[in-house]
Amino acid sequence: MHESRVPPTAGADQLIPGRNCWRIERADKAAVIVDAADYFAAARAAMLTARKRIMLIGWDFDARIRFGDEHEGQPVPIGKFIQWLVERRPGLEVYLLRWDLGLLKTLFRGSTPLTLLRWKLHKRIHFSLDGAHPTGASHHQKIVVIDDCLAFCGGIDMTRNRWDTRAHRDDDPQRVDPTGKPYGPWHDATTALTGPAAAALGALARDRWKCATGEQLAPIEPEGDCWPNELVPAFENIDVAIARTRPDYGDEREVHEIETLYLDLIARARRSIYAESQYFASRKLAEALAARLAEQDGPEIVLINPEQADGWLEQEAMDTARARLHEALRRVGANGRFRIYHPFTAAGAPIYVHAKIMVIDDQVLRVGSSNWNNRSLRLDTECDIVIDASRSADAGEAAATISRLRNGLIAEHLDVEPKAIESTFAETASLIETIDRLAGSGRSLRDYRTPDLAAVEKFLADHEVLDPEGPDEMFEPIARRSLFRRLRKPR
Q1: For residue 488, pLDDT beyond 60
Q2: CB of 129 within 8 A of CB of 98?
Q3: pLDDT at 20 over 50
Q4: Of 156, 335, 470, 482, whose CA is between 20 and 30 Å from 463?
């Protein structure tokens, strides 16, 4: 077993503003919302409490999507719902900001252009495109803020093909796009926060609005309780850290808090790293994992990925990168401590994983918009939130809640009860063994299999990564080639 030559990471056991997060603020209440059926319902209920301002900051937006259920004459499509709401609240203003290049898709989305035109003519609905980023970058944050009182932050965009339930049924009649066409099962996650943490996300949203439009919005003094009645909080009176990625652009200086936080959390893990991500394509994160896998008593690592990336270009780049990184990591001598799994439905359809979640031991929970790829670490605008149980007044209860949330996610993927995960993990002390024992032939998790293994092995042999002197060195030859090269500072 090679001794790791990666130096210890300063501050790895701490959340430090200015290093691996932007701010740490108290959340009066906090919840993790899994899958968009529950998120859309919670967001709709929260918007109904809004009195002064709603901010929607996203990568994409489709005004036609079904946004909750029809109730007391309230429109179902989100575009019509927002206009209906503003017309009934004289003091309410809505600000919607989305990535500018995504506009090309919007132009061909049925009634969406007409909805946007109506909004443009409305004095209290403000719609703008976010082009304040370097060439090739995107605005990727997914944030909704209600009166600076309640905020949602995570990985779910209010756009088509996102709605699904945690059951991920094969033939769910509600899982159709605005044209009535069925789409595949989709797994995603976000968070809900109130208190100073929500106000901080409000400040971040206003900063992004100013960056994109030049308009400075004033903060709002929260009034009353804005928490949706049917949403059960997982935490109360808990510290929440907010971490960002922001590229260097104009007057905005680059921020790499998310990258540093990933590296610190990987260094911090003692027993397990559980993560869900749309991609696994970051050489820098793979290096950090390799260093931990090279340790004789390092943590086990479970990564939940979609079977394939969404889109042919993403498949060509991200899936190829994943195959090479996966095979490289297998050669570290990990003793079976690293596994990638994919979720499938009962009928064998792949469930697309869009969630961005990380759980370190039972101590740290991270949910956000960032993926395990270079774009999220360096190029796109991202926002993640983090809860560290050790910062709670009742650290034991916070840790137990984080453990339950992780077990609930694994149970969802395996289609078993969370108590089955809890009891099996108590017996095995291993996430990997727990998953392997409970995996079934129906809706379940399946092992990642490297496509065209012979070609990947030839690539690794040709680039001299089969016999490295240390876990960090095994990636150096790859790093000198474009697919795995660290992104340079945007100009």
Answers
A1: no
A2: yes
A3: yes
A4: 335
Confidence of residue 350 (pLDDT cuts 50, 70, 90): very high
Same domain, 249 and 320: yes
Same domain, 200 and 263: no
Q: Which pLDDT belongs to residue 472?
A: 46
Nearest Cα neighbor of 409 from 265, 301, 304, 280 is 304
- Is 16 part of a structural domain of the chain? no
Please report whether residue 232 resides in a domain.
no
**53-58 vs 272-276, strand pairing mode:** unpaired
415-449: per-residue pLDDT in tens? Answer: 999 999 999 999 999 999 999 999 999 999 999 98
| Cα–Cα distance for residue pair 115/111, rounded to 1 Å | 6
pTM (whole model) above 0.85: yes
Q: How many CA atoms lie within 13 A of 474 on its CB side?
A: 29
Q: At what angle do helices 320-330 and 283-293 cross, to 10 degrees?
A: 20
CB atoms within 10 A of CB 143: 22
What does DSSP say about strands 186-187 and 357-360: parallel, antiparallel, or unpaired? unpaired
Dist. CA 428–CA 410, nearest whole Å: 15
Q: Give a yes or no: residue 19 inside a domain.
A: no
Structure tokens at 419: 């108590």
pLDDT at residue 103, as a whole number: 55
pLDDT band at 141 (very low <50, low <70, confident <90, very high): very high
In this predicted model, what pLDDT tens digit does every residue of 293-333 receive, in sequence order? Answer: 999 899 999 999 999 988 655 776 788 888 888 888 887 75
Mean pLDDT of 394-400: 97
pLDDT at residue 275 is higher than 60: yes
Give me the CATH number covering residue 50: 3.30.870.10
pLDDT at 267: 97
- Please enumerate in sequence order all residues whose Cβ is within 8 A of that of 250, keeping only pairs 6 or more positions apart, or say none: 132, 211
Close Cβ partners of 380 (under 8 Å, ≥ 6 residues apart): 133, 137, 138, 139, 140, 245, 247
Number of Cα atoms under 13 Å in the Cβ half of residue 131: 5
The three-state secondary structure class of 157 is: coil
**Domain carrying residue 391:** 240-479
Nearest to 29 by CA among 275, 229, 276, 257: 229
Q: Per-residue DSSP letters for 4-41?
A: P-SPPPTTTTS--BTTTBSEEEEEEEEEEEESHHHHHH
Torsion region of 429: left, alpha or beta (phi above 0 gives left; psi -120 to 50 gives alpha): left
